[in-house]
Specification:
CATH class: Alpha Beta
CATH superfamily: Response regulator
Largest sheet: 5 strands, parallel
Strand order of the largest sheet: 2-1-3-6-7
Number of helices: 4
Number of domains: 1
Shape: globular
Number of strands: 7
Radius of gyration: 13 Å
Length: 121
Amino acid sequence: MAKYKILVIDDDQDILDAIRFTLEDEGYLVETSKNAGMIDDMSENNIPSLIILDVLLEGDDGRQISRKLKGNPVTKNIPVILVSADTAAKKYFSYSKASDFLSKPFDIDELLSKIKNLLKK
């Protein structure tokens, strides 16, 4: 399997750790962050293969971050999976231009399936 780099952004350290361990066990390279600050610093040489992004981050809205990523020529083709415990967040999913959405708590097998499907495209 090719080494895909996945960026996970969530303000809950337990979720970051759980996703990191699971994805690393599957052979992915994983970078985590509790905020979206590094997104502005992404260059063509340092972009992930896929981003898992929490909708409700401290001080940020993942839907707006996803929309910004999709509007940037450098990052527009990166698949973004939005995750949220807020059941109302899904109704604004199309605004975000994200590739997929997953409600928290989520089944890890469902997350892995979504990742595999998006990385095949």
